[in-house]
Structures are given as C-alpha cells and as structure tokens.
Specification:
Number of strands: 2
Mean pLDDT: 88
Order of helices and strands: EHEHH
Oligomer: single chain
Number of helices: 3
Shape: flat
Low-confidence stretches: none
Largest sheet: 2 strands, parallel
C-alpha cells in the first residue's frame, strides 16, 4: 500500500545508486539528489526546507484538484 502513495526520495549524491533503487520500488516516487551528505537538514537546511515545502504544496494542490473532480 505504501508503494502507491506519492513520495519524494531525497538522497545524497554520494549514494545515488542506492537512492535510485529505493525510488524504483515506490511507484509514485520522485527521485531527487542533494549534496548535503547524510544529514541534509543540518548541512543544507535551506534546500531541505524548500524540498519539503514544495512537496507539501504539490500534495495540497493534488488533493484540492481531486476534491473538485469528484
């Protein structure tokens, strides 16, 4: 069931192949790399914040669209 939820996989550029494997298992996943190492929320906090904000906004828009269609 989880594999069908909209997700974004945020993965370090240092381990791209492993990140692609994780995203590949999730049918609704978008794969994005970053340069922040293991702790992007600490090393690149603005990028991490923007990443989660954008994803939240996209989900909200999709939700509103689905409500208007149904």
């Amino acid at each position: 069931v989880v594999k069908d939820l909209p997700m974004q996989v945020l993965w370090s550029e240092e381990w791209v192949e492993q990140g692609r494997q994780v995203a590949g298992v999730l049918s609704q996943a978008t794969f994005i790399t970053h340069s922040g190492g293991r702790w992007p929320q600490v090393r690149i906090p603005q990028f991490s914040f923007q990443f989660f904000l954008n994803f939240s906004i996209e989900l909200r828009i999709q939700s509103q669209f689905l409500k208007s269609v149904v």
